[in-house]
């Protein structure tokens, strides 16, 4: 694994510090410290002027967070994020594989095309699904014109439209890391597995899948995280009853002005997301190590 | 690999591309729609493009967004690539802690990142919504994505290539510059692309940290969607897609995307 400071191009204490310090320092100052501050704020309460005061630091705001009204919202967010992640991985893997294996000299171009919609605003892409999915929208017009349906289907403001919007929005986040890990896979390993009489499915399960697992983990994380914290898609493609945690936190924080309560909900959301991620990572890691 | 499977995969991939591009196509079509009422097709017009050029607030928002994305990408790519490289290659003490730190930034929902930075700047610096605050916010959520992408590429690299360079008389810096960097360059490029897209698109973190005069395009567009869209929004999106497509085409003709090893 190592020869720090030896014959490798990298290594040595000074090099290590120069590589690590800027990034780690930035993240401690602008990420850890602010998180510490919102934890402090979440222990306080607001006074009559909406200022944060710490006369009786307590966990009361966290107790309020377990209000039964808040729990279905939380479950809803988790459900959307989980379905979106699974769909993005299943849809994204074959295309990432195809680009890497058969893209030839067009590989990076094909990859850039996957990313192209990203250069328009996410908001606008969500909004353009509104144009497509409305009762008199593009899709219903087409379906009725070719006689598949006679009445407009109700597509917008449903779970379907929210999940569609999320998969659409986060699919490229899944494809990029999948591509990176599939692309560094040595094709000779697959050929070797086939030479040793593995079926195509067997080669995929025992060679390709384990070796690209880091990419799958990264892809899953990159999809799940924005999905669970997503505010825009449920807001624009979901109905009024489609509540998610992010919508609730945003509302409390920017409109209700109860910063300590908003901070507590936000902090809780982060802790739960982090916990879920760590469990997922450990499970996957065990699979990678023990699955061969 | 049989060509039959290749054909199935190609057909499938074509479908996914169709899915990815359908809303973009609709957007472009409707930017030429001769109706204020944006949901029903009425006929062809270029009226909205004219109105767009006359809309100072929209153009100002675009300018802020581009400046912000540019500065944020440069900082996060430099800082994030160094970090990704260290994680992939150097078994230093504290690597586990660095990994956890990066994971934390990526796991933390945007909304939490946004509100914590807002309180941080208010409490410690009494600052509220400067351009610098937005840069700090954007770089903070970009660094991890760049580091992870670069790290994935660097971890897959054959280290014997570096040793071969050293055997052939290159010093450490030379081996890094001429061997390591070109190999991890696609990872850095992917990281930069990701960072740009994240910054350019961000609504949630920005809405917490943008002060007066720092309205970005997503903030502007969100306001329009909430309080009645005008087709100008479709028009600016169409222009952005067109500019991007042209830039990609030029880069492709110049051979920018052909550095990859060929497989198969």
Polypeptide structure, described:
- The complex is a heterodimer of chains A (292) and B (264).
- Chain A is 72% helix and 1% strand.
- Chain A has 292 residues and is an all-alpha fold.
- Chain A has one domain: MetI-like fold, CATH 1.10.3720.10.
- Chain A is globular and about 75 Å long.
- Chain B has 264 residues and is mainly alpha-helical.
- Chain B has a domain at 62-216: MetI-like (MetI-like fold, Orthogonal Bundle), CATH 1.10.3720.
- Chain B has helices at residues 3-31, 47-54, 56-89, 95-107, 110-125, 131-155, 160-167, 172-201, 204-209, 217-226, 231-253.
- Chains A and B meet through α1, α3, α4, α5 and α7 of A and α1, α3, α4, α5 and α6 of B.
How would you summarize the topology of this molecule?
The complex is a heterodimer of chains A (292) and B (264).
Chain A lengths: L12 H30 L2 E2 L5 E2 L6 H6 L5 H32 L4 H9 L6 H12 L4 H8 L13 H25 L3 H9 L4 H12 L1 H16 L3 H6 L7 H12 L2 H32 L2
Antiparallel strand pairs in A: 1-2
Helix pairs in contact in A: 1-13, 3-4, 3-7, 3-10, 7-10, 8-9, 10-13, 12-13
Chain B lengths: L2 H29 L15 H8 L1 H34 L5 H13 L2 H16 L5 H25 L4 H8 L4 H30 L2 H6 L7 H10 L4 H23 L11
Helix pairs in contact in B: 1-11, 2-11, 3-6, 3-8, 3-10, 4-6, 6-8, 7-8
The CATH class designation of chain A is Mainly Alpha
Low-confidence stretches of chain B: 259-264
Count the beta strands of chain B.
Answer: 0
Mind describing the biggest β-sheet of chain B? none
Secondary-structure element series of chain B: HHHHHHHHHHH
Architecture of the domain at 62-216 in chain B in CATH?
Answer: Orthogonal Bundle
CATH topology of the domain at 62-216 in chain B: the name is: MetI-like fold
Give the overall silhouette of chain A.
Answer: globular
Low-confidence stretches of chain A: 1-7
How would you describe this structure in keywords?
heterodimer; A: 292 residues; mainly alpha; MetI-like fold; two-stranded antiparallel sheet; 72% helix; disordered N terminus; B: 264 residues; 11 helices; disordered C terminus
